[in-house]
Amino acid sequence: MAVTIASSTNDNSVRAALRSPRRLKTEVLAGLVVALALIPEAISFSIIAGVDPRVGLFASFTMAVTIAVVGGRPAMISAATGAVALVVAPLTRQYGIDYLIATVLLAGLLQIVLSLLGVAKLMRFIPRSVMVGFVNALAILIFIAQLPHLIDVPWLVYPLLAVALLILVFLPKLTSAVPAPLVAIVLLTGATVIFAFNVPNVGDEGELPSSLPTLLFPDVPLDMHTLSIIAPYALAMALVGLLESLMTAKLVDDVTDTHSNKTREGWGQGVANIVTGFFGGMGGCAMIGQTMINVKVSGARTRISTFLAGVFLLILVVGLGDVVALIPMAALVAVMIMVSVGTFDWHSVNPKTLRRMPIGETVVMLVTVAVTVATHNLAYGVIVGVITAMVIFARRVAHLTEVIDVAHPDEDTRVYAVRGELFFASSNDLIYQFDYVDDPKNIVIDLSESHVWDASTVATLDAITTKYAARGKNVEIVGLDDASAERHLRLSGRLGDGH
């Protein structure tokens, strides 16, 4: 597996960006804006996970820098995330930081193994309606996460928030020379310091580190008991991280109209988590909010912005911590609100769209949103959404199957044609669509316009044959395509007594 720092496309390569001062400036400024937005998020996720803020901040640094090199989706931001924090929080509370680090290392190894086994290919089974629900749920969760910073706060927070939102909305219409989020953060920080506004700032979120991260190894017994403790959390963390990362990568593919290597992104996340674990970080995965700031708001397209986001984060919290602590939360909240608004798929809830869209598609989208928002876990929302989509699809396809009386070649023969896809949902009713009592001696079942997909269908065909045989009648099944014939030949008569 060759690891390169170039993007998957020539137009968006690191080399091309380095040769273009304008594009390089975009990447650098995007990385700076993302780094500023990462600080309060990483601190908040550390609190959720029950660890020191430095654990989340160092995780964000190592995740971003490592994934910039080994990841498969250029310009995507990976760092400490809320989903991972929720998974590991019970473990940390009960067993402590060393077991958390051991879990992060094992989760990274599992992500590498799962990715090399082809887990990324499962993305093809996620319907568009689930993807839309995923995006909308993300937007809602990003907005909900900002509410604690807007409730029970000094009244000055609200005019500062309004000014920041005005800058974010109207500055891009005037110029794109400097990212609007950076302008909003700098101006509001300056105003807060000059006029001594007493408003919540980054420093209030938690203590910033004063030293660089160092290599360490978790102090846990290397035995089966330890493995039994960390394995369930590691597997959950690996699956949640892969799901969020691959879904975010697909979203960035759509936004940038480019393709990314999902398998490489998967094992890259695993490598990043292993590196993070050895530096005492809490682990993480792709971050939709910061990724949208990087790609959609700031216009970044290469690995440079991802790498610099991590570097700037470390410089800001270690070298300029006193300055960063002064940034008013109102500025960062405004940035995240705009990210929320920009992320939400407003077209999906347009009345015209809802009238045209099949009701099943809308139900899948709403279920995905509801479960995700209720649990604050994107993995649960996507899994339930996919299951709902499968049930609706199976129900729809099952109703398209029909049995038709097509011919009577002679008085002793009747020909039935079966049309549609035959699987567990459709074949269960198939047995009731034949006239076992009044049919003649010879029955021909023509399956040339259908396909046998599973053992349930073979069992149903056996049951039909058995019912006719009980009345002294013969059944001939014809028209099977090669795959259906092979499946029928292999399973027929070997699935039970036919009842």
Give the secondary structure arrangement, pairings included:
Elements: H1 14-19, H2 21-49, H3 53-70, E1 78-79, H4 82-95, H5 97-116, H6 128-146, H7 157-174, H8 180-194, H9 224-256, H10 262-278, E2 285-286, H11 288-297, H12 303-319, H13 321-324, H14 329-343, H15 351-356, H16 359-375, H17 378-398, E3 402-407, E4 413-422, H18 424-427, E5 442-452, H19 455-469, E6 474-478, H20 482-491
Parallel strand pairs: 4-5, 5-6
Antiparallel strand pairs: 1-2, 3-4
Helix pairs in contact: 2-3, 2-4, 2-11, 2-12, 3-10, 3-12, 4-5, 4-9, 5-9, 5-10, 6-14, 6-16, 6-17, 7-8, 7-14, 8-14, 9-10, 9-11, 11-14, 16-17
What does this protein look like?
This protein has 499 residues and is an alpha/beta fold. The protein folds into three domains: 14-343, no CATH class; 346-384, no CATH class; 402-491, Transcription Regulator spoIIAA (2-Layer Sandwich), CATH 3.30.750. The chain is built from 20 helices and six strands. It has helices spanning 14-19, 21-49, 53-70, 82-95, 97-116, 128-146, 157-174, 180-194, 224-256, 262-278, 288-297, 303-319, 321-324, 329-343, 351-356, 359-375, 378-398, 424-427, 455-469, 482-491, and strands at 78-79, 285-286, 402-407, 413-422, 442-452, 474-478. The strands form two sheets. The chain has a four-stranded mixed sheet. Strands 1-2 form a two-stranded antiparallel ribbon. α6 (128-146) packs parallel to α16 (359-375). The protein is elongated. Keywords: Membrane, Transmembrane, Transmembrane helix. InterPro entries: Membrane-Transporter-like (IPR052706), SLC26A/SulP_dom (IPR011547), STAS_dom (IPR002645), STAS_dom_sf (IPR036513). This is Putative SulP family transporter.
